[in-house]
Amino acid sequence: MSDDWLIGQYNTVGHYTMAAICLRGHVVTADVGRFGEAVTKFCTKCGAQVVTKCSACGTPIHGHFVPPGVSGIGAPLRPPAHCHECGKAYSWTEAKIAAARELVDELEEIGPEDRIKLKTAITDISTAGPQAEVGAIRINKLIGKATSAVGQALWKAAVDIATEAAKKTLLGVRRQWCVTRLPCPGTSGPRSKGPRSRAPSGASTRAFRRAFIERRHWRLLRAACRAFLITLPGTL
User: Fold this and answer.
1) What is the DSSP letter of 19?
2) By CB atoms within 10 Å of each CB, which of 45, 73, 113, 230 scores lowest?
3) Distance (Å, rounded) from C-alpha 52 to C-alpha 174?
């Protein structure tokens, strides 16, 4: 075994597979080289045309990154939002953004100025950059005013469009609002109801957790006693 062969093995940097995706974002295969026979002209889910290259520059669409020494990756592929060569948004990204912007027009709880801000924020969260997180916070703020099913559908569409950084902001703010019983974006109220969803003012976190656990254990004990027809004082 020669030293040149070993040097060549260690200098291998891996490669990207070529993916086949329909114009609406359904992944046909993440590796055309291995599963080329699975590629059809049209999508079996929606009937849209299946493509393997960017329509603007003709560069193959990236699938999974295959490290050196690995034959292939079997994990599900999330379609890339933009072409890595020319930067143009793929057709499925443009379709999702257009659908989300149409949903903005269906919101009745916000005014014309907020509609413009919301449409701009939807475009911002689809690209990685400093405005992505700003757009995510703005979306949660504006959709929080909407209590209809349209607001909830718009929030889900925003999560699907958002980059990873913007998605963490969207999900993080929503989770925080639901825990503190503030209105969650796109809903008519908090997800958690009852006095235990927020700690009383002035109570420490440790005391609140202990009280929550005690109430939970007491309810479990009461349910067990009811199951065995045992009566506890002041419970039944």
Assistant:
1) P
2) 113
3) 36
Instruction: Please say if the pLDDT value at position 197 is more than 60.
Output: no
Whose tokens are 């656990």? That residue is: 213
**CA dist., res. 19 & res. 182, Å (int):** 42
Domain ranges of the chain: 3-66, 91-179, 199-227
Q: How far apart are CA 21 and CA 227, in angstroms?
A: 55
Say whether pTM exceeds 0.85. Answer: no
Mean pLDDT of 103-108: 88
Residue 5 has pLDDT above 50, yes or no: no
Between CA 225 and CA 222 the distance in angstroms is: 5
Task: Assign 119 a pLDDT band (cuts: 50, 70, 90).
Answer: very high
CA dihedral 124, 126, 131, 134 (to 10 degrees): 90
69 vs 100: CA distance, rounded Å? 42
CA angle at residue 175 from 101 to 124, to 5 degrees? 30
Q: Write the burial class of residue 59 (CB in 10 Å: 0-12 exposed, 13-18 middle, 19+ buried).
A: middle
What DSSP designation does 89 have?
A: B
